[in-house]
Amino acid sequence: MKTLGRRDEAARLVRAAQALRDRFNDAFWCEEIGSFALALDPDGRQVGSVGSNAMHCVATGIAEETLGRRVLAAKAAGLVITAETVRTSAQARVLAIAGFDRGGGPFAEAGLR
Question: By residue range, what is the domain housing residue 63?
């Protein structure tokens, strides 16, 4: 916006983005788990869950810098369950339930092994 000569609009948008960031961090940072809450319930209470969603807050830049550093430190310490961990264990569980770990499952039953 500044490059286009729309400095006032650019300044207004920066202020709005900063206000949104502040409101987000105030609403979602959950000191109890040292991370961002997964969601807010209908009454506005935090739903705490340590998972990879907090990494999205860091990656998008909405996480305040000091809170983002705490999330990254927890990730580095192995305290954050990443999407890859969840996906891998969930896939293994689904494949085991379907019988693929024993050479079975719907494809084998259909003769598509």
Answer: 1-81
